[in-house]
Write a structure and sequence with these properties.
Mean pLDDT: 81
Region (Disordered): 288-335
Distance between the termini: 21 Å
Helix content: 55-70%
Order of helices and strands: HHHHHHHHHHHHHH
Strand content: under 5%
Number of strands: 0
Membrane topology: Multi-pass membrane protein
Protein name: Ceramide synthase 6
DNA-binding region: 28-71
Number of helices: 14
Main location: endoplasmic reticulum
Largest sheet: none
Length: 335
């Protein structure tokens, strides 16, 4: 009701991918046998249909991409996520600035576990938990991306961590973790919206801001501020106990994912800069991308010299890519 009119006002059209031409034999193979035929099957289909292997590869690629959402759909999804991230981060900042543990993290552990659960804190936790549950379920209905496993692990850890800290009344330090990790997400979604709307300079600026905030908060502030209080200050004030070990293990796992994603962001930025030496750079349109569900290698493949053997061409993301917040596509951090 809101995002679609905004997208139309920005001249974002509901253009889908190129439709594969109807073919009963290939459609039967695609739906009943495999979406990624190997070389032997490609040769058999080539003889059966009197098509060259390259054309069959192109048909399967186009058929897989038919399920890819349009730019309009992607814009609406990004706008919805941008709205949520902006709201929840703003709420978290307004809530935390009134709390003593934002300014002195030792207050997270004073009088633990006999700390009152306020209405604002309860609302903040339930809102975040419901959002991660929605991501957990929607991940199975959305287009399956190459980092499906990593994102599934992330959502699972987040849900368990939020629930575990709530049950053990570690909600004070939990709010610090939540707010810190929400700080960069709105910038990413804003960069993606600018990308879909073809606002190049704004997209570049927002992506740079996102990368700086993400790396600063997750590789700097999080370990030096949050992990410091959960590992050392809590040990000093309340001492270790069984759930203390579990809680910190989960936080360290989150930090491991933060390091992995920071590596990807730096890798994407480096590719964009190196590509931009010859002209404009767009961090959200880097070839050999690390996180897209779009098989846009078709443009490169279709432009190969006619004399090149089609059997040696890289066929699809599904067969030659990696599964890993991982290597062709059009939008680098497409969620």
């Amino acid at each position: 009701f809101v995002a679609k009119p905004c997208a139309i006002a920005l001249n974002i059209q509901a253009n889908g991918p190129q439709i594969a031409p109807p073919n009963a034999i290939l459609e039967k193979v695609f739906t009943a046998i495999t979406k990624h035929p190997d070389e032997k099957r490609l040769e058999g289909l080539s003889k059966q249909l009197d098509w060259d292997v390259r054309s069959i590869q192109r048909w399967f690629r186009q058929r897989r991409n038919q399920e890819k959402p349009s730019t309009l759909t992607r814009f609406c999804e990004s706008m919805w996520r941008f709205s949520f991230y902006l709201y929840v981060f703003t709420y978290g900042v307004r809530f935390l600035k009134k709390t003593p543990w934002l300014w002195n993290t030792r207050h997270c552990w004073y009088n633990y576990p006999y700390q009152p659960l306020t209405t604002d804190l309860h609302y903040y936790y339930i809102l975040e938990l419901s959002f991660y549950w929605s991501l957990m379920f929607s991940q199975f209905t959305d287009i399956k991306r190459k980092d499906f496993g990593i994102m599934f692990l992330h959502h699972l850890v987040c849900i368990f961590l939020i629930t575990f800290s709530y049950v053990n009344n570690m909600a004070r330090v939990g709010t610090l973790v939540l707010c810190l990790h929400d700080s960069a997400d709105a910038l990413l979604e804003a960069a993606k919206m600018a990308n879909y709307a073809k606002f190049q300079k704004m997209c570049d600026l927002l992506f740079v801001m996102f990368a700086v905030v993400f790396i600063t908060t997750r590789l700097g502030i999080f370990p030096l501020w949050v992990l410091n209080t959960t590992l050392f200050e809590s040990w000093e004030i309340v001492g270790p106990y069984p759930s203390w070990w579990v809680f910190n293990l989960l936080l360290l796992l989150i930090q491991g994912l933060n390091c992995f994603w920071s590596y990807l962001i730096v890798k994407i930025a480096c590719k964009a800069v190196s590509r931009g030496k010859a002209g404009k750079w767009n961090p959200l349109h880097v070839s050999k991308d690390d996180r897209s569900d779009i098989e846009s290698s078709s443009d490169e493949e279709d432009s190969e010299p006619p004399g090149k053997n089609a059997h040696t061409a890289t066929t699809t993301n599904g067969t030659s890519g990696t599964n890993g917040y991982l290597l062709t596509g059009s939008c680098s951090m497409d969620d």
